Every structure is written in C-alpha cells, then in structure tokens.
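User: quick one
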Amino acid sequence: MKPFDRLTTSACALPLASIDTDQLIPARFMKRSRADGYGQFLLHDMRFDETGAPRPDFPLNADAAKRAEVLVTRRNFGAGSSREAAVYALVDFGFRCVIAPSFGDIFASNAVNNGLLPAKVSEADAEEILGLIETTGAAVTVDLHDCLIRFGNRNYSFTIDPIWQTKLLNGWDDLDLTLSLSGDIGRFEQRDQAERPWARLPDRPD
Amino acid sequence: MTATRQPQTLFDKVWDAHVVTRREDGAELLFIDRHLVHEGSFHAFNKLKEKRAKVRRPDLTIGVADHYVPTRTRALSEVAPDIAGMIRQLDDNCRANAIRMFGFDDPRQGIVHVIGPEQGLTLPGLTMVCGDSHTSTHGAFGALAFGIGASEVAHVLLTQTLWQKRPKRMRITVDGATAPGITAKDIALSIIARIGADGAQGHAIEYAGSAIRALTMEGRLTLCNLSIESGARCGMIAPDETTFAYVRGRPLAPAGDVLDGAIAAWRELTSDADAAFDRAVLLDGKDIAPTVTWGISPEDALPIGASVPDPAAMDDASRASHVREALDYMGLAPGQALDTIRIDRVFIGSCTNSRIEDLRAAASVLAGRTARVPGLVSPGSHLVKQQAEQEGLDRIFIAAGLDWVGPGCSMCVGMNGDLVPSGERCASTTNRNFKGRQGPGARTHLMSPAMVAAAAIAGHLTDVRPLLRSAS
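Assistant: Done. Structure below.
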C-alpha cells in the first residue's frame, strides 16, 4: 500500500451530511471485479440524472474536482453498509483523503485498509473549510505527521486513531504481520479448544 | 481469581477471551469464532486467489447466499445472468475452500442474520464477523459480532483473526414496561432518534434495563440489528434464560454435557455491577410510541402522532440543511402530520424484521382485512417460511392482497431486482431509509411489521394501536 505522508492538492467541497455508502456506490454497481475500476460509479445517482447525463451543479462534476485529491464534507460520512466498494469508488476517482466531522466506523476502517485518510475535524472547522473552498478555491496541504490541514495561511488540526496514523504513514498491510504470527494463533487455538469446547462447530455430515 | 479484579463490562469479558496478542501501538489481535460469508465476499476470495493462499479455518467459515437471491423463483436459470453469476460464484468459492454452505438450493437457506441464530451458529460469548454491517444482530446473544469490509474478510479467511482497537463502551438502558403494541423496532428507532445516526460511533453498545430483558430473542435480534444505524459497530445484550432456552436444540449448537458447561460459562457474561461505561443513555420504556421515519437517515424518526419537522424553525443550520434535503427527496411538506402520508406499497422482510414473530405481528393486523396498496412479504428463511405456512400466515397475507415470496435480502437492498419504483413511497420493515436504498428514487419509511401492516390497510402511515384493539 502506498504510504501517506503529506499531500498538497486541490480540495472538492461536498456540503452534505450523512453521505452513506449506498450513495457512495449504489448496490447495483457492485458486481464487477476491483480490477475493472469503481471510480465512474462514485456517488453515481447524485452525479448523473435519470438519463445518465452529468448534473452540472454537482460538485464532483466541476472541472476542478477531477484534479482534487481531498474531499471535504459534513458529519457522518460513510455511514451504513460495510461495502468496501465505497472506498474503492473514492480511491479510483482519485481521492486520497476525506475531511469530515465524523465517519462511519466500518467505512473509516475500510478507508485505512486502502490508503485513504479519514481526517476528522470539528464541525466548526469543517464549515470554515467548506466556506474557504467556495470563496478562495485555495490549494490544501494535509500533513499526516502533524495531523494538520493547511489552507492558505490557516491551520486546522485533525484527529485520527494513532494506530491508523502509523499504518497509513508506513503503508502497512496488516496481513503480512499477522501471517508472521501464525504460531501464536495456533497456540491460541489449542488452548481455546480446551477452554471452550462448546465454541467449535460439529463436523459436517458430508 | 482475586478480590482486586477490575470490574468488567460484558463487552470486555468477551473481547479479552479472544485476544491472541497485543501490539505495541495498542491494537489487539482477536480470534474469530464464526466467519459468515455471502455473495459480496468475492473481493476477498479474489485476494486469496492472488496470494494462492488457503482458508485457515474452513470449519469456522460459513457461506450463505442471501444478498442476490431471487425471491420469486427457485430456478437460477430464470434469473438475470449477472445476478445468477453472483450466487454461483459464492458456491464455487465455498466449494473450492471446503466451506460449509447454505446455498440457494438448500432448504435451510435464508438471510445470514436470520439463519445464524436459527441454526445455532450464533452463541453467547463468540466473536462473529461478516462482510455486512448488520452483523451486529448476533449481539442479541451476548456475542461480540460486527460487520467488516472486504480487506478484513480476506484477513479473516487467511488468519481467522482481526487486528482491532478496543472501542469505547456505551450502555443504553431502557427501563419500565413498554405500552401494548410497542415493539423492539420502536425502541430501536427511538434510541437512534435520540442519540443520532452517528451517536454511538466508536462505541460498543450494551443494551440493558427491564424493557430489554422483557424482549424475546427475536425482539433482541431486531434491536441489536439496528445498532449500526446509531453508528455502533456492535450492540450486545447479556445472555439469560431466554437466550439459553432459544439455543437449546438448535442443529449446530452444542448439546448435552458440552451445552451444560457452556451455559455455566455463559452465566458469567454480564457486566459487573460497578463496571465503567464511557457513556450512559437512559430511556423510559413508557415514553416509547410506535415510531416511523420521515427522512433519509434512520435518525429522522418520530412517533406516529408527530408531524414532519420544519427546517425554517431550526437554529442549527447544518441540521436545517439536512432536513430540507430530506423533505425534498421524500416529497414531504414541513408540518405535515405523519399519519397523513400516503404510501404506494409495503415491504415486510429483511434481517431486521422477517422472523416468525414479525410475520405473526403483521398477519394479526392484516387478518380479515384488505391492503389498499401492493406489497411483498419475504420471510427471513425457508424454515421461517415453512413455519408461517403451517400457521396459515401466508393465506392471510395473500388474502389481504400482498405477495408471499421466498427468503432473501430482497427489497431491503434491491440487489436481486426486487425494487421500489422511482418516486414511489414504501412503508418498510427494513433498516435503512437512505436515498435510493430500495431502488433509484425510491422513498422509504421505516417502521415495525405491525405498523407496516396498518399502513397497508389504511393506504397511509397510521397508528396500529386502534387496529390491535378492534382485532382483539
């Protein structure tokens, strides 16, 4: 996974609350393989009208949004379904960071597993940043070392779980570490089988 | 055991029993007792194939076809090829990895969160995960159960473990008797309206109090199912005699001496009297009314006697903006009485409310009456369907004018093609009233099965309680 250190880019403002993962990727687009890409379906039913034409006033359809790697939005972003395809859609569209006052827990965990930074700010700061994008369109710098967002001469701090911060900074994948702990898992399984015989499942009849 | 042991919550007791190791940064590696996989798990199986790796514990992995299964035919050949392909893909992945499977053609097939308890896969004190956010359902047994993403599904397939950071603990206490006609769904929607759709983010919920103790297992499943709609990844209820009685005799549950030993261990699974919670919320059971949603988030819920809120009267600009967006999508006016909202169809089903008690509650309202709108009734599993038919519930639904179909996620998420047409309004027993959840442009009002039945008869949202009185 690509490490996330510091990012300077333009930001896209999406001043809506509770954008759930059903919005981020409608269920009917989830049958394809990851290799085929999910970016074109990001927020599909908000971006496009019933005929499939882009809605000109939707923020993601602005030319500037196509270069933006930071999305700024309101509270409860990514609530709902655990579909990791919601993160695939954001990442494949080109986003590397979402700034919001709160995130769905499963979404945030999926984001970190795909190198997408969920940066949590206060509601007041989110509103101020959304306002700044509207008025100045300024470039943004997101610094994960210091947990700082710089907008022109203004600084905003964000929070992220330190475990996730380390993981994103290093581009770690949990899996390699866990596979190296296979012996510990085996010892747990052995001990556990004796302590909780009721937790195993009966053998399959077939 | 020493007298100085720290008092612990139910959550911490189950968590601690599953810690394989702890990392310097505080993350803990948890052993997973049950891993449920459905059609959506293909991303994870693809990762497995890329790594040419094997499933570490196929014996603890269970495949269930539910998200894409058709509800109007038992023949996959009659289904759109892309949807049939999703079901076959799960079959293939399970077969290739020697995973126990409840496939489309299995007589025990149903929604994963319905058949887990039904088959005895779900037990107190287990850790359970599934690539589905409503995995919180299984917490009704005092299991630590939560939804995970595809990367985590792959991690569990390969290692039977997950790295997790211990969340904060929240206790939601509902004390006092609820009024007649009040269900677990009304309790859950009232909680979500109170604390918000993100109110429990970062927390594990424990539900406590006399109103919770009084719930049946099926009511507890509905309540814990909706934990994720208040932002909590998991919600738990301490196991008790109700739980043990439900588990006893289930096909895959322990039996005999092993069960006796298990029950002895499960009796320890309660929060100690002075265990600390990071947050406590208290509701009075007698204040809870039949509750419906009017907006596009489960937190947009109010008692049926209330009116649609007015954004112009709100001080909070962000909340007012959300309400305006919701009313625009839902086609509702500020101040409109909720019980005047006309509906186009109804849906009874989903992992939230498709169990036998849900069907009985809806049927008791519909018996001898006619629905003014069309609708779909999809039982949670083939076994629930069979039982309902033995009790004659299917004939009540059909006589009322509703369609009685097979089990699956169906119109809750629309993946199998059971959709609410654009612009139509559906009274639904499901879990999410998100924009487009039941189909592009579909408008969803969440409520209990009895309330959906009442809406079907009236043609608009309405308080079920007068119908209950006239039925009895």
